Every structure is written in structure tokens, then in C-alpha cells.
Amino acid sequence: MEGHRFTRFAHRSDTRYGRTDGITVEFLDGDPVRSAARPTGETVPLKDVRLLAPVRPGKIVAVGRNYADHIAETGMGAPAVPRLFFKPPSAVIGPDEPIHYPPQSRQVEHEAELAVVIGRTTRAVPAADALSHVFGYTCANDVTARDIQKADGQPSWAKAFDTFCPLGPWITTGLDPADLEIQCHINGERRQHARTSRLLTPVADLIAYISAAVTLDPGDIILTGTPAGVGPIAPGDTVEVSISGVGTLSNPVASAAQ
């Protein structure tokens, strides 16, 4: 299925899958990422459903320092090969769900990123064929407890907290990831602005590099890196990640869940 926006949503007491034109949602009979889901014929207004994270990944593979301007602002060197780490699926939340500011941190930051949703089993795929293994793309926020990252010198734990991987609002298929605009706004103020043409390791090469070592399954996510402009968020803020051709993912920031 190409050229559609696929959703996962709550309707009444059920979790369902569908595709949307931005006004209505057409129900599907299954998860389109993992099956040949078909329309059921039922539709409802988009405003009458609650959007959830559009995919439930088995694993999330993320890359750090993949934009030169972000490398410059960190004061670190460019990696010789993609610098990879994992985020746990338990970190995933959907649109409008709160990012919880954990009590262990005093410096939580936003990181707007293009997320790649894998559509079929991918193992040792060459870069020339890699994009054919992609189901679609969505917005992501690789939320990071920066003080914890600085204290232990590696990213995984600082990025692993519950609610630290917002995804959404839906998965858009049929996109060319080569030159998409990516932005992040905090309370309406733009903090990040770049294009995916500035990725040091483009999407196809990332898939090839990762799949040479790790089998990627349908529904798995690759976070492609964040551009310059990362900065702090605080309880009461609203974070918006926007990607051209995809849409806008919005999440409030709240104090840690009690």
C-alpha cells in the first residue's frame, strides 16, 4: 500500500488500524505494517478517534551524530561509521500523550527525527535495495536525559525512560526520504530546522549498515538522527515535531508519573 497515511487509534473500547485523509478514518481489518490489511468499509471522523503510536516496534535502532551541525554543537567529532544504540519499545508513546520528566534528571532535551518503519524482514540488504524494505515514515522525538548521558558517557540509558520515544501522528507511505524538511517547535518557538538531505548517512545506507548485523522485522523503527538546535524541555511545555509529507507530532511535557 503506497501513498497513504496509516493510523493506529482508539475508538470506543477498541484499538484499531486505519488510513486517513486528514478528515476521516477508514478502518482496516488488521495491522497494515505486518499484514495485507484491507478496508472494512467502516469510516468515522478523525476527530472522533484518539490517535495512538502508529506502530508497536519490536526494536528501535537509533543513530547518533548524523547531522554535521548537531555534531558541531556538541563539540564532538564525526563518527567514522554510524553510531548506533537501542531504545526500548516501552519508551514509545503516541500523539498528545505526555512526556514524563523523570525525577532522576535535571536536563531533559528534545531531539526531532525522521523515523523509518520497516515493512518486511530485512537481513543484509544492499543500499540499492534498502528502501524497498521500508513501509513508511513517521515523526519521532528521541527524548534524552542529557545530564545522565553526560554522566555515564553513552546514550542508551539516558534515552530509555518510559515516554522518551513519541511517534506519530501516523505512518506516511510513498515518500522519498532524501530531502524532507524537519522542524521542532517548543511552545510555538522553532528550535530545530533542517532537511534530511543533510544526513551524513542517508536512510538507505543506514538500513544496509544495520541489517548487515541485525535482522530488522516488520514494525521495527530506525531513528535517523537529529539536527542542530536540541535543547531543554520542562513540565508545562508542548513539543511539536513536524516533517514535510508526514505531519506534526505534538506532546505535552509533564512531571514524573506518580
TrEMBL record:
<dbReference type="GO" id="GO:0018773">
    <property type="term" value="F:acetylpyruvate hydrolase activity"/>
</dbReference>
<dbReference type="GO" id="GO:0019752">
    <property type="term" value="P:carboxylic acid metabolic process"/>
</dbReference>
<feature type="domain" description="Fumarylacetoacetase-like C-terminal">
    <location>
        <begin position="59"/>
        <end position="253"/>
    </location>
</feature>
<dbReference type="GO" id="GO:0046872">
    <property type="term" value="F:metal ion binding"/>
</dbReference>
<dbReference type="InterPro" id="IPR036663">
    <property type="entry name" value="Fumarylacetoacetase_C_sf"/>
</dbReference>
<dbReference type="GO" id="GO:0016853">
    <property type="term" value="F:isomerase activity"/>
</dbReference>
<dbReference type="Pfam" id="PF01557">
    <property type="entry name" value="FAA_hydrolase"/>
</dbReference>
<keyword id="KW-0479">Metal-binding</keyword>
<dbReference type="InterPro" id="IPR011234">
    <property type="entry name" value="Fumarylacetoacetase-like_C"/>
</dbReference>
<keyword id="KW-0413">Isomerase</keyword>
<dbReference type="InterPro" id="IPR018833">
    <property type="entry name" value="Rv2993c-like_N"/>
</dbReference>
<dbReference type="Pfam" id="PF10370">
    <property type="entry name" value="Rv2993c-like_N"/>
</dbReference>
<feature type="domain" description="Rv2993c-like N-terminal">
    <location>
        <begin position="5"/>
        <end position="54"/>
    </location>
</feature>
<protein>
    <submittedName>
        <fullName>5-carboxymethyl-2-hydroxymuconate delta-isomerase</fullName>
    </submittedName>
</protein>
